[in-house]
Backbone:
């Protein structure tokens, strides 16, 4: 499925960079090093970053939450790449849900 908002954005560019790091020398890049440790380690790092974001959200520190949210998005993409799930797969799932909720809205009118 082609995503309707297919204009490339920073997340697409970051995901493409992360994918390219799957074949890179681990010594050359933090991302390549993390991917070389395997999908379980990538998932663990995602969990750690999510918890750090939760802490900043509870503290209501907007600057720190913004920074942690960027870490969460980066580590989400690394975890997806480690398991060969594409960003397009995830966006398509969101689009499918939006169109389903549109059907539900129309049905309730
Ligand atoms: N967006 C990011 C990004 N966000 C966070 N990080 C790294 O993720 C790491 C995780 O932070 P931690 O505080 O947990 O790091 P740490 O304590 O050193 O790690 P551990 O000891 O816990 O394993 C840090 O080293 C950050 O530099 C990122 N590393 C890379 N990118 C982007 O990924 C792309 C590829 O970068 P390279 O990894 O340099 O190839 C580039 O576009 C980068 O901008």
Residues:
């Amino acid at each position: 499925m082609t995503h309707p908002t297919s204009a490339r954005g920073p997340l697409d560019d970051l995901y493409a960079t992360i994918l390219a790091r799957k074949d890179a020398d681990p010594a050359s890049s933090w991302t390549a090093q993390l991917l070389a440790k395997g999908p379980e380690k990538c998932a663990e790092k995602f969990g750690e970053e999510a918890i750090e974001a939760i802490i900043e959200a509870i503290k209501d520190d907007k600057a720190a939450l913004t920074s942690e949210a960027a870490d969460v998005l980066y580590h989400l993409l690394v975890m997806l790449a480690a398991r060969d799930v594409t960003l397009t797969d995830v966006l398509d799932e969101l689009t499918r849900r939006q169109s389903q909720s549109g059907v539900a809205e129309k049905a309730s009118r």
The pocket of phosphoribosyl ATP is lined by residues 14, 17, 21, 29-31, 71, 74 (CB under 6 Å). The chain has a mean pLDDT of 91. Residues 10-108 form a domain with the Helix Hairpins fold (CATH 1.10.287.1080).
